[in-house]
Specification:
heterodimer, A: 164 residues, alpha+beta, Arc Repressor Mutant, subunit A, Glutaredoxin, 2 domains, five-stranded mixed β-sheet, B: 455 residues, alpha/beta, Rossmann fold, Ubiquitin-like (UB roll), de novo design (two linked rop proteins), 3 domains, four-stranded parallel β-sheet, 13 strands
Amino acid sequence: MEIPSELESRIDEVITHYPASKRSASLPLLHLIQEHFGYITDEAISWVAQKLELEPINILELVTFYPMFRQEPYGKHHIRVCRTLSCAMAGSYSLLKTFCRHAKIDPEQHEHGSHVLKSPDGKYSLEFVECLASCGTGPVCMIDDDFYEAVSEDEAPELLQKYQ
Amino acid sequence: MAAILRTPHPREKRIIFKNIDREGWTTDIDCYEKDGGYEDLRAAFRLTPEQIVNEVKTSSLRGRGGAGFPCGAKWGFIKPGGSKPVYLICNADESEPGTFKDRYIIHQDPHQLLEGMIISCYAVNARLAYIYIRGEFPLGAQILEQAIAEAKSRGYIGSNILGSGFDLEIYVHRGAGAYICGEETGLIESLEGKRPYPRIKPPYFPAVLGLYMSPTVVNNVETLCNVKHIVRMGGAEFAKIGRPNNTGTRVLCVSGDVQKPGYYELEVGALTMGELIYDVCGGLKPGRKLKAVIPGGSSAKVLRADERYKIKSKQSDGTVTEQEIGIDDIRMDFDSLAAVGSMAGSGGVIVMDDSRDMVWALNNINEFYAHESCGQCTPCREGSLWMSKMTGRMLQGGGDQRDPDVLTSVADNIAGRTICAFGEACAWPTQSFVAKFRDEFAAYAAKNGSKAEQA
């Protein structure tokens, strides 16, 4: 694993946001690492720990706790569909199935320890997530960092088209 | 986020959401300054910190995050002149299902939040502040970072702000998808770079032993925005909006089975539930009848549409009268919703019509809490999962006539037995859904005839 110098200088800058305790920079560093590499390896965990003068377990326990961190690659594009009540009432369960159908994802697949569904070609991964805080415009979803409101099942295929 | 511009409803009173959906409004500082932005900050520096705290106390502003705790009292716990630094944290971890107000402030009016924060930091003498924003708002985090950079370049953040001698740095800190980080002590642990296991109170009241064991104020986004307006109007004038002990406006977020779901900024208590649903939100879908309302985010106890509520109210001559009202007549304020056994919570109103299955709805909520329990306290970690498994089994056709009692018993054994309020938050839906729709829960046993016989 090689940390490019640009990334490292960004990391060093972020650490200065926490003058009282470097440990506070754990989450921001994990975000930066994940954005760059796509997921967080054991090696990355050790690197972050060393950078912040912590033990690797201090970092690993964060990666395993916080739902947004991942230790395996997701698809090239990651889709999050909101599962919680208002979106469910607005049809998020069938939206999820529609995404599966068009992204060629098997909704019944089970991989131990993972709730993320993947398409065999590696292009898409799909996750049913808890409330995305836009309950008035359900069902909502995110594709990568982009947010979409009131997504109808008819719109799902063209939405996927945008992410190749 | 491509905003769809929406004209405010005539019954709205827009203060906090004045710039939301405003034609030509942008997030950059020029737009904000042209509209009189940061003038309230200049006014604040003409006051002493104590004067600002007193104005906030006079305003009777209550926290908009969920608990409704008086903001001035919270600030009053910070003792001036202590040896440790004071921190202020803006809780922008908006994740209570049904709530979506902070999203719009962050994405469309970041400088209003910053101005409110800077004034608040000056009032409690915090020189370092963080905005803890939920991880699922990546664009919101960028917008805030941009806004902070702009405010710094104009001298509103940094050292010796506007020549006042007051120094302040504000940083954005992103969460990573955990609901429990909205709990203030969990948030603090998370900001310290740990798992967000909430701390026990006492002794860990944030005002005394908060971030890095220093005095810390944690306020919701909407609460901090209100501070700016309190400085402009004065606390007494602000307190005239709304009702006594329920002052100001509230952004109510309405979702579910209404014609016009969305956010509506209303004077606290100016409307009843019926007016909100039928006048402001355009009523229910054609041919549907109201069945239930969750009035303050998914944790709030559900209200049944045909229930009668006894409300006590104090008259001007000091006598107390009791009145029986229906759901439509419940006033949308902190005290009235508490009086009918629920809460105003975070302002998230979820409306359900007669097409909804209450076991299905509760199961959805139970799955949420089972997923989000941090796992620190056994009753919550195990109980939230048990409740979720039970309602899940009922939906799969495995209902049992003992289910309503067992569900209630599990919920009863979580509430009050945990370190943080998540225990109550996950118990209240089950307790209230089962109590108020017991017939529906019992009917699931009948759907599974043979098993019910055996029991």
